[in-house]
TrEMBL record:
Annotated F-box domain residues: 31-68
Residue ranges that the Swiss-Prot or TrEMBL entry lists as coiled coil: none
Family annotation (Gene3D superfamilies): 1.20.1280.50
InterPro entries given in the database record: AT3G44326-like, F-box-like_dom_sf, F-box_dom
Protein name, UniProt field: F-box domain-containing protein
Length: 389
C-alpha cells in the first residue's frame, strides 16, 4: 500500500480500474476520497465515470470546493462560498465557469442587415422589453476575478455590483454612460496595501533599462506568455455564472501610453441579439502594468498592476452603455461554452477578422464618397463658369 500511494495520481487511478469489480465495494471509501481530492476538475469529472464508487464520492461538495479554490482562489472567501452554495453548490459552479464562452454567430454579421445608426431605431426597438430591463439591477451582478502569473496566483478581487451603488433607476447616469468596471482603486501616492507587483523572484527577466527593453522586448514577452486571467460574472438573482475571460491574452500593446506601461488584453465575444444592431459585442478585459524599477535603479526589476477593467464594445468600436450592458451580461450567462480552448480562440479571432473587414469596407465607402464629392464639386465649378462665359 505504501508503494501504491507513492505512484502518480493518474497511475493510481489506472491501478484501481483493474481491481476486480466485486472487490471494489470492500475497499475503504476514505481511500477513494483521498485519491479524488488530489485531482483537478477535468480529471475528477472523468474519474466519476469509471465506476459507481467514484461516481458517488465525486458528488461530494468538499471535493469540488477544493477544486474551485485551487483554480479560483477568490472562492475561498466566506461570502463567496455562501453565494456559490445558494446557486447550487461548487460542482455546478465549476461546470458553469470552467468552460469559456464561444460565439460563432459573428460570421452571420452583415452590416446591410442592420440600420447604420442606432438613432434610426425606435425606442422600443433599441431598448427591447422594458419589463425585462426593469427586473435587472447593477447590484444583481458579482465579479469574481483571479490573476495568475506562471501558474501562481498573484491577485484575487471580488466586486459586488457593477458601476456605482447609487446608479438606480432608468434615468441614472450609469445606464446612459459607457459601461465600465474598474477593480483597482489605489493611486500612485497610495501605500503598498493591496498593490500587486511582480519582480525577478516571481519569474520576470531582469532588464537593465527601458531602452534595452524596447529593443528586445523580453519583459513584455514574459508578461504576455505568463499571465492568465479569470473574470467570473455572477447574477445573484438568476443564480447563473459564466467566465467572461479568455484565460490567455488575446493581444496587447507595449510602451503605451508611456514607455513604462504595458497593456494586455483578454476578453470574449458575447451575444447581443435583439439588444444592439451589431447582434454581437466584444467584452474587453484590460490589465495594465507599469515598470516601477529596473536593474539600473539598483533595486531590481519590478512591475506594478495599475489597471484591471472591463468594458463592452460593439462591432464598430463604440462603447456600450450601462443599460444595454446589463442586458448583454444577463444573456451571456446562459450562452454556449466550450472546454476546447482552440475553439474559444477561433471565436475571438473570427470577431477580429469580421471587425477588420467592416472597418476596411467603411473606409472604402468613405473614399468613394470623397471622390464623388470632389467630382461633384469640379462639375459644379465647370458648369458655373460655362454658364458665366
Amino acid at each position: 500500500m505504501c508503494c501504491f500511494s507513492q505512484r502518480p495520481v493518474w497511475l493510481r487511478i489506472i491501478a484501481m480500474s483493474v481491481v476486480p469489480v466485486d472487490s471494489i465495494p470492500s475497499l475503504n471509501s476514505d481511500l477513494f476520497y483521498d485519491i479524488l481530492r488530489r485531482l483537478d476538475g477535468p480529471t475528477l469529472a472523468s474519474a466519476a465515470c469509471t465506476c459507481a464508487a467514484f461516481c458517488s464520492i465525486s458528488k461530494e461538495e468538499s471535493l469540488w470546493e477544493n477544486v474551485c479554490s485551487s483554480v479560483w482562489p477568490a472562492t475561498n472567501r466566506e461570502d463567496i462560498k455562501s453565494l456559490i452554495s445558494s446557486m447550487g453548490g461548487f460542482r455546478k459552479f465549476y461546470a458553469d465557469c470552467f468552460p469559456l464562452i464561444v460565439n460563432k454567430e459573428v460570421a452571420d454579421y452583415q452590416e446591410k442587415n442592420f440600420l447604420e445608426y442606432p438613432d434610426d431605431w425606435t425606442e422600443a426597438e433599441y431598448y427591447g422589453d422594458m419589463n425585462e430591463f426593469e427586473s435587472l439591477s447593477p447590484s444583481d451582478f458579482v465579479s469574481i476575478v483571479d490573476i495568475r502569473f506562471k501558474d501562481k496566483a498573484i491577485c484575487s478581487k471580488v466586486q459586488w455590483g457593477v458601476g456605482v451603488p447609487n446608479a438606480n433607476g432608468y434615468d441614472g447616469w450609469f445606464y446612459n454612460c459607457p459601461f465600465r468596471i474598474d477593480l483597482l482603486t489605489y493611486r500612485d501616492d497610495d501605500n503598498n496595501d493591496g498593490v500587486v507587483t511582480l519582480s525577478v523572484s516571481d519569474g520576470l527577466p531582469p532588464i537593465t533599462s527601458m531602452e534595452r527593453e524596447r529593443k528586445d522586448g523580453k519583459l513584455w514577452q514574459e508578461l504576455f506568455d505568463g499571465l492568465q486571467l479569470s473574470w467570473i460574472m455572477v447574477n445573484r438573482k438568476m443564480k447563473q455564472a459564466a467566465n467572461l475571460a479568455s484565460w490567455r491574452p488575446l493581444g496587447g500593446q507595449r510602451h503605451w501610453p508611456t514607455d513604462n506601461d504595458f497593456v494586455i488584453r483578454f476578453g470574449s465575444v458575447l451575444p447581443a441579439t435583439d439588444i444592439l444592431p451589431s447582434q454581437v459585442v466584444e467584452c474587453i478585459l484590460i490589465m495594465k502594468f507599469r515598470v516601477v524599477n529596473t536593474e539600473e535603479d539598483g533595486v531590481g526589476t519590478k512591475v506594478k498592476l495599475t489597471e484591471l477593467s472591463m468594458q463592452l464594445e460593439d462591432m464598430e468600436g463604440a462603447h456600450v452603455n450601462g443599460r444595454n450592458s446589463l442586458l448583454i451580461l444577463k444573456e451571456a450567462l446562459s450562452c454556449r461554452r466550450s472546454k476546447n480552448y482552440s475553439e474559444v480562440l477561433e471565436s475571438c479571432h473570427l470577431y477580429s477578422k469580421v471587425q477588420s473587414e467592416l472597418k476596411e469596407e467603411k473606409m472604402r465607402n468613405e473614399s468613394r464618397l470623397d471622390r464623388l464629392c470632389i467630382l461633384s464639386g469640379i462639375a459644379a465649378f465647370m458648369t458655373f463658369w460655362y454658364c458665366v462665359l
